[in-house]
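Journal club side-thread
Mid-discussion, someone asked how the predicted structure for our own chain would compare to the paper's figures. Pasting it here so we can look after the session.
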Amino acid sequence: MRIPLGLAPENRVVRVVEVRGGRGLIRRLSELGFLKGEWVRVLKSGPSGPALVEVKGSRIALGRGVLMRIIVECVPP
């Protein structure tokens, strides 16, 4: 199932399938490690506001708008 990263549940590992947005946003997110096929763990997330995620061993806080542009695939627990 493909969903925006902003809707992924806490403590879940997901895989990036697409990053939507302009060239600047896509470039910045790729520099942070959000590349197609990369595994991401959602550490802390709520119904609104930023979320804390882990990608390539780094913890990163992202705003809700950016989270909704990263499309992920949920992996069975």
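Post-session note: The longest strand covers residues 12-19.
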